[in-house]
Write a structure and sequence with these properties.
Layout: E1 5-10, H1 21-36, E2 40-46, E3 56-59, H2 62-68, H3 80-100, E4 106-111, H4 113-125, E5 130-134, H5 153-166, E6 169-172, H6 175-183, E7 192-194, E8 214-218, H7 227-238, E9 245-249, H8 255-260, E10 266-270, H9 275-282, E11 287-289, H10 299-306, E12 310-314, E13 330-332, H11 336-347, H12 351-368, H13 371-388
Parallel strand pairs: 1-2, 1-4, 2-3, 4-5, 5-6, 6-7, 8-9, 8-11, 9-10, 11-12, 12-13
Helix pairs in contact: 1-13, 2-3, 3-4, 7-11
């Protein structure tokens, strides 16, 4: 049967070693459309390391990746100029693909500025609509005093402005991102769609939510994610409840530093790609802590909410409203570590409230972050981009 719609998901981040939620987002869309929308041909254009992954049909060469991309598994590039050249190489691969495949009814789905230059070069040769998803905005770094602003900061902002102005359609994950595009980037356009991401974990599969003394950190082990502050917060909780344990899922530059501390209450699981394994660990945790200064819409919180983990996030203007504060999670002002510890200490004295909040968290996930909503809403954006072209 002839496919009625073809989507090329362009991404520099994709399994098996995803660095951010971007890779998970792209994989979720690709597999979701392939499984649930049979009339859509959904494929991925990315680096050669993912060539064996289902749905990946366009890649750069291994030689180009070795020359232009960072070999460190916790970073995509270490040379900005080389990375821009890599984007052009990926565009060449996409154009080669269309030499033998029809481009009719095709939409290019860009993921952040990292894919924009690729799509831009493709569209110099093929008049295709571009849908761009905004995962993170570079100007956020300007309010993150603990994160150094890179030398290419302004260049990325230029690329972002072009992407936000020239894309046929824009997808934001939250109202906060939409506001930032309009107020901080001064981009005036009405077609900014807000479509929250979902999780690979299916909440309907989870049966019983118990009040446990286990906490979860799910994310990269880097300073900006706040893992060291999370550990200090857990130490404070253990003064009152010494049986509290912290499960850490993720990899990053701080892994060895944490390992060397030999903390008996911390279990380092490392990077886990398998959703069922993450679910098994998260199901046993009542709380999910992420003290990040670099996330707008942290996918790891969505994953943990699917398992009924009560989330704790900093209450910053740029962070999405992802739950009902005090009902299905907590947004914390100021000295987040101490305040989170005090709230959890109070909750641990009331098992019934923990169970109620875990149920509320999972219910909020089912209502707001379902895979069907993500796919159907995103499909409508693709169809609009095609019809308006």
């Amino acid at each position: 049967m002839q496919k009625s719609l073809k989507i090329i998901h362009i991404s520099s981040d994709y399994p098996p070693h995803t660095l951010w939620g971007m890779g998970v987002y792209v994989e979720t869309l690709q597999r979701g459309f392939s499984e649930k929308h049979k009339d859509i041909c959904s494929c991925v254009a990315t680096a050669s390391k993912s060539i064996a992954e289902s749905g990946v049909c366009i890649t750069t060469s291994k030689e180009d990746d070795l020359l232009l991309l960072c070999r460190d598994k916790i970073a995509i590039f270490d040379n900005f100029g080389k990375f821009l050249l890599w984007q052009e190489k990926l565009a060449d691969s996409i154009l080669d693909y269309f030499k033998t495949n029809s481009s009719q009814n095709t939409v290019l789905h860009v993921n952040n500025w990292m894919s924009w230059l690729t799509a831009k070069k493709v569209c110099k040769n093929l008049d295709l609509p571009i849908v761009s998803s905004v995962h993170f905005l570079q100007k956020q770094y300007e309010s993150m005093v603990e994160n150094p602003i890179p030398t290419y900061h302004n260049k990325i902002i230029e690329i972002e402005r072009e992407m936000l102005s020239e894309s046929d359609e824009i997808i934001c994950f939250s109202d906060e991102s939409k506001r930032m595009i309009k107020e901080v980037y001064c981009i005036e356009r009405e077609d900014l769609f807000v479509i929250p991401h979902t999780s690979k974990i299916r909440a309907s599969d989870i049966r019983v939510l118990q009040p446990t003394h286990n906490l979860l950190f799910l994310g990269r082990l880097t300073h900006d994610k706040g893992i060291l502050e999370v550990i200090e917060s857990v130490k404070y909780i253990r003064e009152k409840y010494p049986d509290v344990q912290l499960h850490v899922i993720g990899d990053g530059e701080l892994y060895d530093k944490i390992l060397e501390q030999v903390l008996p209450f911390v279990t380092l699981h490392g990077y886990i790609d398998n959703a069922q394994e993450i679910e098994k660990i998260a199901n046993e945790c009542s709380f999910s802590l992420l003290f990040s200064t670099s996330d707008v819409f942290p996918i790891s919180i969505v994953d943990s909410m699917a398992c009924g983990c009560i989330p704790f996030l900093p209450n910053r203007e740029s962070v999405a409203i992802m739950f009902e504060d005090g009902i299905s999670g907590f947004r914390i002002d100021g000295n987040i570590g101490k305040k989170v510890a005090d709230i959890i200490i109070d909750l641990l004295s009331n098992n019934a409230r923990i169970v109620d909040m875990r149920k509320n968290t999972q219910k909020y996930y089912n209502t707001h972050y379902s895979i069907d909503t993500l796919l159907s809403s995103t499909r409508k954006v693709y169809e609009k981009a095609l019809s308006d072209k």
